[in-house]
Amino acid sequence: MRETRADTQQAIVLAIILHVVLFALMFAGMLWTRSAAPQSAAGAPVEADLVDANALSAAMQRVLDDRPEPVPPLPEPVDEPIEEPVVPPPAPTPQPQPLPSPVPEDSPTPPQSQPQDFIPKPDTAEQAEVVATPTPTPSDEKKLQEEKRRQAQVDLTERERQQEAERKRRLAERAKEAKETEEREKKLAEIQRKRAEAEREIKLAEQRLKQVADAQARASNRSSESSGASDASPPPGNHGRDTGLEAQYAAALRQAIVSKWTRPETVPLGSKCTIIIKQLRGGEVTSASVSSPCAYDEQGRRSIEAAVLKAQPLPYSGFESVFARTLTLNFEAADR
C-alpha cells in the first residue's frame, strides 16, 4: 500500500500529541513527588540499638541491679484562684529642662587631640636637673632679655657686614670687568695703529723701489750715453766728481734711511739733522752718529742712528765714483 502525503502529516501530528502527553505526565509526577516529601525538622535524628540484657557483662548487670527506685509522680495540683498583684500607676515623667549656658570660668574643656604619652618610669637624671635649676628671678629675666637683645644686635651687625662685603665684592668685579674692557680696547687700538703703520711702510717701500728703479734706469742711460760718446774727446774738467750723481747718491741714502725709520711724535716734519756715517765698500755701515746742527731731541737722535744701522747695506751700486768712507748727510725728517 502506497503512503500518501496525508498519511505522513497524520503520523507527525500523532507523534507530537504523544510527546505532549508524556511531558504532561512527567510534570504531574514531579509535582506529586514534591508534595509527598516529608517535612524536615531541626535537630539530629534519634537512633536506638536493641541490646539483650542477658548478653551484657556481669559488671553491667550489677550496675543495672543497683540503680535507684523511680520517684513516684507528684499529686495533681488543685486549681485555686490566683490573686493578681496590685501594680501602682507609674509616676509622671518630668519634662526635660534646657541646659544653662556655660560661662567662661566653667566652660567645658576641649578634648585633647592626642593621648598623652605614658612614662612608665620617670627619668631621675632629668628630674634632678630640673629641681637643681633655680627659678629665674626678675633680675635674671632682665639679664636674659638683655643678652637676647645683645645677641640680636650682634647678628644684625654681622649681617650688615656680610652685605657690605658682598657689595664691595660686586663693585670690585665690575671695576675689574671695566678695566679688562679698557685694556682690550687699548690692545685693539694698538693693533689697528700697527696695521696702519705696516700699510704705510708697504706703500713707502713700493715708492722707494720705484725711485731706485728710476735712478738705476737713469744711471744706465747715462752710462750708455757716456760709453757712446767715449770716442769723442772728453769735455774739459778739473778731475772732480759729478755733482749730479752726488745729489742722486744723497737722495738714495735718505730714502734708504727713511724706509727703516719710524719718526717719533716729538720730531716735527721737515726738521733737519746732520748725520756722520762711516761705511765700507758695498754699503756696510761701521758707525752712525748725530752731529750739530740737529733739531731732534734725544729720542729722535737715537732713533735716526738706529735707522741708519738698519738700512745697511746702503746704496752702492752705480755710485762707486762718488762713494766715500765717511759721509756727512744732511737729513730732513719725512714720513715714509
TrEMBL record:
User: Per the UniProt entry, what is one GO biological process?
Assistant: bacteriocin transport
Q: Name one GO molecular function term.
A: toxin transmembrane transporter activity
InterPro entries assigned to the protein according to its UniProt record, in alphabetical order: Tol-Pal_TolA (IPR014161)
Q: Where is the composition biased (Low complexity)?
A: 215-232
TM ranges are 12-32
Question: What ranges does the record give for the region Disordered, renumbered to this chain?
Answer: 64-197, 209-247
- Show the GO cellular component annotation of the record: membrane
Give residue spans, biased composition: Basic and acidic residues: 139-197
Bias-annotated ranges (Pro residues): 86-113
Keywords (A to Z) from UniProt = Membrane, Transmembrane, Transmembrane helix
Q: Which domain of life is it from?
A: Bacteria
What is the official name of this protein in its record?
A: Cell envelope integrity protein TolA
Organism expressing this protein natively: Novilysobacter ciconiae
Q: What is the lineage of its organism?
A: Bacteria, Pseudomonadati, Pseudomonadota, Gammaproteobacteria, Lysobacterales
Gene name, please?
A: tolA
